[in-house]
Amino acid sequence: MTYRLFGPELCREADARITAEADVLVVGSGAGGFATAVTAAEHGATVILLEKAPEIGGTTKKAAAAYWVPNNHFMRAGGRKDPKDAALRHMARLTTPASYDPAHPRLGLTEWEYTMTEAFYDHAGDAVETLTSWGALEPVPWDIQPDYYAQMAENEAPYGRILYPHRHGGAPGEIGDGTDMIAVFAEAARIRGVDLRTGHRVVRAVVDDRDEVVGVVAETAGGEAAFRARRAVVFASGGFTHDVGLRTSSLPGPVLGGCAAKSNTGDFLPLAQALGADLANMNGAWLAPMVLDRAVADRPDAVCSFSIPGDSMIFVNRFGRRVVNEKAPYQDLVPTFWSWESQRAEYPNLLLVMVWDESAQHHHSGEKYGNPMVPDGGDRSHIVRGDTLDDLADAVRARLARYAGHIGGWTLDERFADTLRTTVERYNSFARTGRDEDFHRGETPIERYFNMGGRPGNDRNETMWPIAGQGPYYATVLAPATLDTKGGPRTDPHGRVLTRAGEPVPGLYAVGNCAAAMSRGSYWAGGATLGPIITAGHLAGRHAATRPSRPIPPQGEAR
To answer: Which residues contact 255 (CB under 8 A, 6 or more apart)?
Structure first.
């Protein structure tokens, strides 16, 4: 039998010497890869898991690692209702508000979007409960955190869907993060005999003369290594956040950085395309602001700003004007950066200047979830200071000049300080009444949750307080960024990669951010990344493990 290699250089005939083989090959060791590997192993398959980076965990390891699970077993045990029809309407309205129709059989979604969304609702709770019973997950319900759109009429279960990892080895109920999630997953995989290999960057797929994917070739420090899959190959290798060219050509606006794992460079996309996969949602991403200094530094430990607390704090554009509700969910903040003014041929909000006073620094500084207001003793190199608003403006200009080559020379308007004073006066008038007449800050449950509590004595609107009339003042510069991208090949509910004709590519599966997300550009709730990813990994692992095993060619024949 003849085998071919598919990769970025198209394909060629090959006689690949096999390094190792297993029933299922999994590429990527984040939550999606581990959920796949553990499930496949639990169903009797031998599994090799290949990780590009020198360490396991991918973007999951960097994350807070909440996972959003409709109708989960904690909700059911507590008698909480999460009816399917309402949950589907909620997700559909967020996914496609322009075509949402509650009277339509698919609610305005495409057939593929509806099928995938329904499969998520139907299987998410079971996937998490099953993985928990195997010791692969240790979920802690976090009922105090609302969904991002808890206020929507379609959302009949605004609390209870969000789970967090348990702090590994911590007290019962103690919340952990992605590091803890990966530690538990890795131990579950080890117990089940998963062969985990780091430093393996998969660059080609091996296909037999029946056009079935039967293995991969990986680059390693010791040269290329080929791996054979007797049943299936499952990619869970992340998105393309750190491929600047692909990011620039695909996403709908400028993105200056991202907090995905540095290994997320879209390696699966050229392989999938060569195999005839149908790509979708390539303009979609999980978006969040990021401190400009961190985005430009491009450090592996860089984090996005998911939660920006503070009451005597505002965001302003280059003219010194407020342009957004600062407490909106992070995904909803980023489109503001992309506002285009053709008259000036510029993005006036390409960067936003976050301004706060000494009292906000005192009450709201911290380092969780990318908070830019870092307390004394932490890394405050991204923060500038001024005794007056004029001094602050000068300090911001100097910081922007440092990064001129990264931001197209973007800088502050010459009247920035004067306009900022007017903006502060207007904001303060709202703060004194507790009602933001411009952007309605603090009016939804998630905005108040993200504020992480108000200061003593604020009984009007915990997210707002007048900015002081005298310094010192502080500022940092925020830029548009991604947690990761969400475009790739369409899959079916089993995780099988689909061709443009809608047929599965034999032997090929995809899970997580390397595959197309059914949610388009929306972000259903906190954990709406990992909830579907873990569910998809569980379904893909189960299906891949039960595929018929291909015969192994005798040693010496083309493999």
So the answer is: 247, 248, 285, 287, 480, 481, 482
